Amino acid sequence: APIDPHVERRRIDHAIQSVRARMAARLGHRTSAVEAAILSAHVAIVTDPLLLDTLLAAIARGRSAPQAIADAAAHFSGALGRVNTPTLRERAADIQGLCVQLLDDVCGSQIARTAMALEGPSVIVAETMTPQQLLDLDRRWISGLVLETAGTTSHTVILARSLGIPMIVDIPQARRCLVAGEEVVVDGHRGLVVAGLTEAARAFYARELKRLRAREVVIARAAVGPVTTVDGR
Fold first, then answer.
1. Confidence of residue 72 (pLDDT cuts 50, 70, 90)
2. Measured between alpha carbons, how far is 101 from 120 in angstroms, rounded to an integer?
3. Burial letters for 72-97: b for 16+ Cβ neighbours within 10 Å, e otherwise?
4. What are phi and psi of 119, to 5 degrees?
5. DSSP bridge partners of 167
6. What ranges in the chain are assigned the alpha helix state H?
7. Under 8 Å CB-to-CB from 163, ≥6 apart: which residues?
8. Do the beta carbons of residue 72 and residue 54 sit within 8 Å?
9. Rounded to whole angstroms, how far apart are CA atoms 164 and 162?
């Protein structure tokens, strides 16, 4: 059947409003300042007139709503990938993640919103991860994240840091090197992923964990006191 541009436009409008509404609902809940800032940035992206214009231009060329979204993702990711500023290049992941959400709504699929079920302390190893995917996980069980591709200023990295989740990024072939079910340590302070743990390594990191937790207690106590400079101001 021929594609009706009016129908495709309505599908696009509905998807944008649905994604925006989900983000607004999450913003309405109790969120950290970092989480709220990232969600607000994503609302701005998904409602950007330039994105809508790009989608409508594709529909005018005879593309369906899903095809238009895929075209827009490729267009903006390609454009951002060519810039010299790493921070801007890393926004390509935001565009791709948001376009996946739009596709999910347009196609009526629940796959993209089905979070991984964590049943115990887990280190998640993946090619990449969007902030939304991280927010959908049960944070009680996230012991660490290892991503094959993600810059240090990506929103996922910023969010993980704010949540206190150890994270190592830009580890090529991580999914090949680390076996499911294997015991590993994500050492965010040293930038290491330690596998094949020996008893000596386990003992070392047990002491490290104890030391870090003690340090967190000291910092937490200091954080509730008055904020003054060294000269008493």
1. very high
2. 27
3. bbeebbeebeeeeeeeebbbbbbbbb
4. -110, 0
5. 145
6. 5-28, 33-46, 49-60, 65-81, 86-89, 91-107, 131-136, 155-162, 174-177, 199-223
7. 32, 139, 142
8. yes
9. 5
pTM over 0.85: no
* Interstrand relation of 185-187 and 192-194 (parallel, antiparallel or unpaired): antiparallel
Q: Which two tokens stand for residue 218?
A: 């000291």
Helix or strand (DSSP H, E) at 194: strand 192-194
Residue 111 in this model has a pLDDT that exceeds 60:
no
- Highest mean predicted confidence (pLDDT) among 60-74, 93-107, 115-129: 60-74
d(CA 58, CA 80): 19
Among 121, 125, 101, smallest CA distance to 43 is for 101
Amino acid sitting at position 41: A
Report CA 206 to chain centroid distance, whole Å.
29
Segment holding 186, helix H or strand E: strand 185-187
**Can you read off the two tokens belonging to residue 67?**
């095809």
State the DSSP code for 144.
E
- The more confident residue out of 94 and 12 is 12
How far apart, in Å, are the Cα atoms of 180 and each of 19, 50, 123, 166, 186? 33, 42, 10, 18, 15
* Non-local CB neighbours of 129 within 8 Å, separated by 6+ positions: 145, 147, 150, 156
